[in-house]
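re the bet — no i am not wrong, look at it urself. input seq straight from the record:
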Amino acid sequence: TAYRRQRQMCIRDRIDGVVLYPDEVFSTNEHFNPCTYENGWRSAATIVNGKIEDSIGGGMCQVSSALYQAVLEAEIEVVERFNHSIKVGYADYAYDATLAGDYKDLKFKNTTGYPMYIESYLTSSNVVIKLYGYEQHDAGHTVEFQNKLIKTTPPEEPIVTEDDTKPEGYEEYTVTALDGKTYELYKYVYENGVLTDTVKVNTSTYAVSYTHLTLPTI
């Protein structure tokens, strides 16, 4: 599919084999942009104004989200990250990272003091990102992540839109698909199995999402 081809190109041609040197900042947009047909991108599903539509570059955000999760696990400094406007199917709340033009980017900085190598590939069902570099922590250091629901935004009442172009007896309804939600993501740091620190990683707010249906009037 176009979506899979986009992900393959993101991984194979754009970030696989990249070496990030000490104190260098990695910009995902710099590796993917310009998002144009001439630059190799094709139309696939993406989020536009809170709705799923086909647009050039659809599929890139699954790669950026996988990259974000790898960076979190490696405890690399995140310089810039944005969540999607609505929930995506390939990442849990607060674990995603969206890209948009030149104004929403995923950036991280190599603060390890040594070069870091990015390996990336696509399996039959997953985007895989691996980071190789200097281990900054002592043996026995582990981390785990947990997202916490902070707020739920209920939807408004269904919206009925009259449309004279439709057959008599039909109305168009805007039907809620998902509530809006705000999540916080936390990192729990353990030394030899003992919890030593708790860090709030991000706050991610997702809007109410809707689907449009045309239903017969009862």
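see?? The first strand starts at residue 19 and ends at 20. told u. also The first helix runs from residue 2 to 15. so pay up
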